[in-house]
Amino acid sequence: MAAPTASDVRSEAETARLRRRYARRDILGRVSLYVVAILAALVCAGPFVWSTLTATKLNADLYNPQHNPFLYNKPPTADHVLFLFTDTAFATFAWNTLWVGLLVVLITLVLGIPAAYSIARLNRPWSTPMGIAIFFVYLVPPSLLFLSLSRVVVWTGLQDSTWSLVLIYPTITVPVSTWLLIGFLKALPRDIEEQAMVDGYSRLGAMLRTIVPLLFPGMVAVVVFAFTLTASEFIYALTFISPTGEKVVSTGVPTELIRGDVFFWQSLQAANILIAVPIAFVFNLFLARFISGFTMGAVKG
To answer: Which residue in 205, 214, 260, 274 has the most C-beta neighbors within 10 A?
Structure first.
């Protein structure tokens, strides 16, 4: 066996050097990725941590400028959280928000899925103009529709009733959801429902048995969008509803906890946490499908 030459030795040394270099680069890349991810998580969790600290601080601790705002300088308390349930109608606000959101989501799905299917699948002459019209409706600011929707609410006799929000909110959620579902439907091959129709199903049966199950990621995106908008919308909820027992969280919390120039900061932050954390938890359960629904709708729309 021939002895290795000087060039072979140099080549092996160069290979080993390159391997160490790439290994260091790989380790550095992984460490950088984890550092960025941890920093991003801290930034995202920062508002929740801040709200939790504020909600459980004593007045003497919160309003003393010499105290560290990031620490408990005095023992924490749950009095401000309990204040929401004992001295305000927070539980009523949360319940109103929940059932209004669920009804709006249901109406949005019932109207949005057939509308998106008819535009994306039936290939009628009006399909393209209708899709464009829905998109333009989505672009109209809600404030421009304020007067006309107010007349509708008065005409139906739903003023000062939470049912007015169930009537109004779908005018915002249905166009957006239909546009999103159109894009998602275009990503699904037509062969699926055509095969079902060959097997004897009607178009409606083929849609319900083959297309709707595949639409689940898009439906999750619609549910998250519609419920989030319902829980955060302020203008219509403030204008159409005055009685405390009919208010939702977006208007009930600020009107109950901001009294003139007195701000109940701890209770305001407690309300934020009690509403935001459950929504964030449910959102994260369906995060993968939510992202899939929005990206497929955006790419194929």
So the answer is: 274
